[in-house]
Amino acid sequence: xxxxxxxxxxxxxxxxxxxxxxxxxxxxxxxxxxxxxxxxxxxxxxxxxxxxxxxxxxxxxxxxxxxxxxxxxxxxxxxxxxxxxxxxxxxxxxxxxxxxxxxxxxxxxxxxxxxxxxxxxxxxxxxxxxxxxxxxxxxxxxxxxxxxxxxxxxxxxxxxxxxxxxxxxxxxxxxxxxxxxxxxxxxxxxxxxxxxxxxxxxxxxxxxxxxxxxxxxxxxxxxxxxxxxxxxxxxxxxxxxxxxxxxxxxxxxxxxxxxxxxxxxxxxxxxxxxxxxx
Length: 278
Ligand SMILES: [Zn+2]
Prior knowledge:
The structure is a single chain. With 278 residues, the protein is α/β, with parallel strands linked by helices. It has a single domain (2-267), classed as Metallo-beta-lactamase, Chain A, CATH 3.60.15. Helix content is 23%, strand content 24%. It has helices spanning 15-19, 24-33, 77-80, 91-97, 115-118, 133-140, 219-223, 234-249, 262-267; strands spanning 2-13, 41-50, 53-57, 81-84, 105-109, 128-132, 161-163, 177-178, 185-189, 198-204, 207-211, 252-255. The longest helix has 16 residues, at 234-249. It starts with a strand and ends in an 11-residue tail after the last helix. The structure holds zinc ion. Zinc ion binds next to loops.
């Protein structure tokens, strides 16, 4: 099953998110009062050529971030994250480079609903859009804006189908949901980075491709069990342990949404090896 990596701009966050911080006070201090930014990282989404139809995982960033009022003027948002994208880097242009159009896509799975993962939704009204029920309910609630979700930017038609993980265990994940009839594309709940974050498992060619979204920034932080979270959070710690165990126990390739190395891992089918990562 062919999987394509599409880059829509770049993003950076505070360094402690990439390398961890000792405690919640340190995290909050570095978030709010320092300018210790990490490196600029890519923002990826993924196209899966499945026989039942094209599946897009996440939709990338949009150049609308530069429109007045699209992002908040002040507050913690701009202390936590910065994004960059040119209009010609958006989803339709990245698809065109590999010979596809947005109208070719049948299904969209969102790992979560932060802006750099849903910016391309505007092009995908015709699709079956899938998101975790927990994530959608948080993003739609009054708490949404305070948690980095901007409902006013969603397309007016946006009414996703909500995932509740009704298909039982998958490996050491307690619950899962099959997306395709052949059972080869599965979503599992991976809460932590966001309350209803989910990851996608694609079983083909004798290994599993894990599209991990923002669970960790790369394989190395997975090995060290450093989740991508703003503030310490128990769910994230448990999730990163579960995913780490899964990729150690099954032949997997592990792809994060913001890992410069992800296209190489994908192109060379680099199966995750515990001992090979520093
Ligand atoms: Zn995110």
